[in-house]
Amino acid sequence: MRIKLFITLLFIFFYNIVTAQTVSLQIFVKISGKDSGANATIQLYSLPDTLLLKSQVSKSVGNKFLVNPFSKYLIKVSAIGFERKYKTIAITNKPVFIAIELKIKNDTLNTVTIVSKKPLIKQEDDKTIVDAEVLANSSTSAYEVLEKTPGVVVDQDGNVYLNSSTAATIYINGRQMRMSTDDIASLLKSLPAASVSKIEIIRTPSAKYDAANSGGIVNVVLKKGIKIGTTGSVNVRYDQGVYGAASAGFSFNNSVGKTNTYLSYQYTHRNYFDNIESDRLIDVDTLLTQKSFTKYSTITNYIGGGIDVEFTKKLDVAYDMRLTANNNNSSATSSNDFSNNISQNEFYQSFTPINNNGTSFYISNTLSSKYKMDSLGSEWTNEVDYTYTNNNNTQLYTNNYLLPIMPVKNGNGTVNSNSNFVTIKSDLSLQLKHKFVLETGFKISDATNNNKALYYTQTDSMLQQVDSYQTNTFTYKENINAAYLQLSKTYHTFIFKAGLRFENTDITGNQFVPTDTTFSIKRNDLFPYFYIKRPLFKVFGYPIVGNAVFRKSITRPGYDALNPAPKFVDPFTYNVGNTKLQPQFTTNYEINATYNDFPVFAVGVNDTKDIFSQVTYQNDTTKIAYRTYDNLGNFKEIYGRLFGGLPAGGKYFMYTGVQYNHIQYEGLYENLPLNYSRGSWTFFTGHELKVTPTLKFNLNAWMYVNGFRAFNELQNLGQLNMSVTKTFLDKKLSVILSGNDIFKTNVGKFHLQQGTVLVNGTRTQDSQRFGLTVRYNFGIAHKEEKKEIFTQPPVNTDPNQ
Question: Strand pairing of 573-575 and 625-646?
C-alpha cells in the first residue's frame, strides 16, 4: 500500500511529460562585422550531459538543425584566428533563429586570471558537497570540520547522523572505514583540518554504493596534488581550552608534464578531557552516584602522499598513501558512591584511578586507474586498496574501597588488536545513444579483526591471578561480494535512474578465550534503487529542481557490536558486544528539492525491521550495568528538512537550516513490550563577512533540541564557533584567530529510563577552545600548454524560456 501511494505521489509530483517532435533551429554565423562566417565549425551538444550531437562547417546561407522540443542545448562555434563562442539555448515547441558573432583572437594577451568563488554547499543529483576550506579555518582536526558541516550531527561518542537516527557510514576518500566508532573518531581527530578538501553527504546512496548504509554516507575527501606547478604550504597552530593543543606541518605538490606528486606531514599534540557524572537508581531505595573524569594526551604523526601519472590522454594511473601513528595516554578517576535514596545515608564508597598507555597505527594504500573510453564521458575505473590498523594498550587500575574499608584490588592488562582490510572494485560507466547511461561494476571486500586481551587482578593478601572476565581472544572475519547494474535516462526535462545491487555476506566470529562463542552470518540480498529528477519552475531566475528517491538498505552488526569481550569502564560499568545480533533492513522514501544546486527542502520516511540499537542492561545480582546492542523490533522515522541562504561570491553569504525527526519504536526491551516515540529538532547556521579583500569573519553554530541517542533523552545543547582571518603578502600569509564552543553550551545532559534502568547524568568535554593559526602558501607555476578546455557554462533549466 505504501509503495502504491509513493508511486501515485511521484506521478502527481512529475505530471508534465510531453510527446516528442522535432523543431527547427537556425544558426547564422557572423565574423567581425562581415555578413557571414563561412568555414567556421558549429558543434551542437545536448544538456545537461554535454553529449556531442552534430558537428558541421557553417554555410553563408545559414545552418539548420532539427532538435527536440522542450530541451536544452549548448552551441559551440570556432574558427582559426577567432575566439570561440558558446551559447546555451532552451527550445520550446516553436522554431528558433539565432545569430552568433565571432571576434578576432587577441594573441598578445599573456595572462588571463579567472576568479570564481566556490559555493560552500552544492547539490549534485543525490550528493551534497560541502567545501571544507571555510570550516577548516576554525578547526584543529578533520573531526572538528565534520562537527561543523551543515546538516551533520556528531554526538559526544563520535557517531555521525544525517537525516536518520541510524548512524551514517564514514568513508575517507571514497573507501568505507570498517573500524569501530572510537577508532574512526580517533583517526579523524589525528587528521589535520587543512588536509580536508570537501565533505560529501549522500543521504540516499544509489545502487553503486554499498547497501550497508541505512543512515547514509559521509565521505571525507582529503586533498591530493593540484596540477598547477610547484606549490605548497606550511602551517603552525596553537589552541587552548582547559588544556592546550599544538600542531605544525607542511604540504608540497609538484606537477611536471603528465606526472603529479604530492606529500604532506602534520605533527599534533592534543590534550583534552571528558567528564561524566550520573545518578543511577539501583532499586527502589538504593542510588548509585558515579563521577568519571578522564584527561587525554595524544601525539599524532600524519603523512599523506602519492603520485598521479597520465600515461595517455585516455589512461590515468594513481597511487595514494595515508599513514597515521598515535601515542595515546589517558589518566582517569572514577568514584562510585551508594546511598539510601530516602535517607541519603551513604553506605558504600569506592575510588578508582585508571591509567591507559597505548599506541595505534593506521596505513592505507590505494592503487587506482581511470580509462576514458570516448569523448562522451564513458569511463572505466578500477581500484585496489589495502588498509592495516594496529592498536596496543596497557591499562592499570586500582579499586580503593573507602566505605566499608576493604583490601585494595589492583588490576592490569594489555590489549592488542589489529585489522586487515582488502578491497577490489571495478566500475564501468557507458554513455549510450538516446541519452541512456549504463553503470555497472563489482566489489570484493575482505576484513579480518583480531583482538587479544590479557588481564590480571591482585589484592593485598593474594598473588596476582588472571582476570577471567576481561581476558579474551576474539577473531572477526567479514567477506562481502557485490555487483550492481544501474541505468539512467534523460527524457526531455526528466532524469530517471533505476538500479539493483546484489550482495553476498559471509561473517564469522570466534571467541576462543574464555569460552567459545562462535557465530556466523551467511546471506544473499537484493537492494533496489529508483530516482527521478526534474526542473519544476524558476524563482528569481534560478531553477527549483525536484527529486524523488526509493531505496532499500541493510545495516550489519560490525566488529564493535559483536565482540563479546568486556571493556572495563569503571567497577560498575562495562561495554560488551552481542554475538546474537541480526542485521536490520531499512526502506527509505524521500522527496526533496534544490534551488540553483542548493538543497532547500526534503521530507522522507525510514521504515526499519529488526532494528538493533545500543542499550543499557543491569545484572540483577551484581548490579553492574553493561552497555551492549540488541535487536528491539520495528522502527519508523519521519523526517523533514528546510535549508536556505544567500549565495557565495559577495561580501556576505550565509546559510541556515532546520531538521525535524520523529521516531517510533515497537518491540521488546528486556522481554517486555516496548512502545516509545520522540521528536527532535536540529538547527544550524553559518555566516561569512568580507570586511576588506584581506579580512573576513566566519561564524557557524548548531543546536540540538529534545535530542535522542540510544534511548538517552538529551536536553538542549549546541555550539557557537567563530573565526577571523587576515591575509598578508599578497594573500600568501594567513593569520586565523578562532573560537570553538564560545559560550560553553555543548553539554550533554541525559536521561535514560528503559526497563529496570533509570539514569540521569551530565557529560562535558573540552569543547570550548580558542586558537591561533598561521599558514603560508608558496608556489611556482609552470608554463601552461595552450590547450582547448571545454567548460560548460551555466545552463538554463527552464523549459519555457
Answer: parallel
| Cα 134 to Cα 723: distance, rounded to the nearest angstrom | 9
Residues 6+ apart with CB under 8 A from 173: 219, 220, 221, 222, 320, 322, 366
- Cβ neighbour number for residue 384 with a 10 Å cutoff: 15
Q: Reply yes or no: is the peptide bond before residue 48 cis, omega within 30 of 0.
A: yes
Averaged confidence pLDDT in the chain: 84
Asked if residues 637 and 662 have their Cβ atoms less than 8 Å apart, the reply is yes
Reference 555, options 631, 450, 474, 477; nearest CA is 631
Whether 242 and 764 have beta carbons less than 8 Å apart is answered as no
Q: Is 467 helix (H, G, I), strand (E, B) or coil?
A: coil
- Specify the DSSP class assigned to residue 557: -
Give the long-range contacts of residues 520-527, CB within 8 A, separation 24 or more. 521/556, 521/582, 521/583, 523/583, 525/211, 525/554, 526/500, 526/501, 526/502, 527/207, 527/211, 527/500, 527/501, 527/502, 527/503, 527/551, 527/552, 527/553, 527/554
**Structural element, H or E, at residue 4:** helix 2-13
Distance CA(355)–CA(226), nearest Å, equals: 44
Using one digit for the tens of pLDDT, what is the confidence trace for 534-585?
A: 988 888 777 889 999 999 999 888 777 888 877 777 777 788 888 888 888 9
Instruction: Quote the pLDDT of residue 611.
Output: 87
Here the cell at position 551 is: 531505496
Please state the pTM of the whole predicted model: 0.77
- Of residues 213, 218, 217, 219, the one with CA closest to residue 586: 213
Please say whether the dihedral angle defined by the alpha carbons of residues 534, 537, 541 and 547, taken in this order, is positive or negative. negative
Distances (CA, A) of 148 to 605, 630, 699, 733, 747: 25, 31, 10, 24, 16
DSSP β-ladder status, 712-714 and 747-754: antiparallel
Distance between CA atoms of 502 and 15, rounded to whole angstroms? Answer: 32
Structure-model confidence comparison of residues 49 and 740, the more confident one: 740
